[in-house]
Amino acid sequence: MQYGWWLLAASTTPTPVEGTVDPNLVTPGPWGFAVIALVGVAVALLVWDMLRRIRRGRYRAEVREMLDAEELSAEQGAAATRDSDTDGQDIDPADDPRR
């Protein structure tokens, strides 16, 4: 195992031969640029739409919470009014059992 790294260090690395690959065949060219540009525009539009939908959902949740709070306060106010009704009877503060 000690001698294995010497074999790797002693081996030569291959070098590419110049002129075997046509650079016009391996570049994306104008069609590749157009496709990537269209994908970029599509992604930007999708992100914009997603953010709009998230914002709309958040606003709806806030409005729903406000309406629930108003409904709860109205119910509590109605309950307080109903509980405080004396049915037309006079209450003498001296007869109040809480004193």
TrEMBL record:
State the residue spans of region: Disordered.
70-99
The protein's UniProt keywords, in alphabetical order, are: Membrane, Transmembrane, Transmembrane helix
Q: Which residues cross the membrane?
A: 29-51
Which stretches does UniProt call biased (Acidic residues)? Answer: 86-99
Protein name (database record): Uncharacterized protein
* Organism encoding this protein: Microbacterium caowuchunii
